[in-house]
Predict the structure.
Amino acid sequence: MRDVVSTRRGFLTGRSVRARPIFYPPGVTDRSIRDCSNCGDCAAACPTSIISMQNGVPALDFDAGECTFCGECANHCPEPVFPAVRATQFAHHAVIATSCLAMNYVDCMACRDACPTAAIRFKPRLGGPFVPSIEADPCTGCGACISVCPTQAITMTARTTEAAHA
């Protein structure tokens, strides 16, 4: 995975670079990854080739493509790393940064066209192209929007739930 510059000043000076977080294959958790034997069978089985072994664990590179939740990684894993029931979404969802072309008055809808669940909607704006908005609930976190974004304005963030108040 590529490193990400966290600030404009950091980009211009080349000093403030932070590593992207590691995202595990579907259904894999911090707890279950401890059982990984680093065999690489899940990476070899991935039809979209987005799984690679990083520091001894399988990690996803959404810059290379999307996860289709096919389950091939789980089918080929000899260890109890993956859940018994095939995962259909990740514990993260996509977010769009202000460096998005559409937010900067350049017409672009590449992310919307790539999204398999139609979680990215474009809302009208006066005097400019439509502005993207991601609905967190239908977003599976598959990463289809990341590889097609020309400005790399889309990242993933953990899903959060608000505590219910009685």
User: Anything to note?
Assistant: The first helix runs from residue 8 to 13.
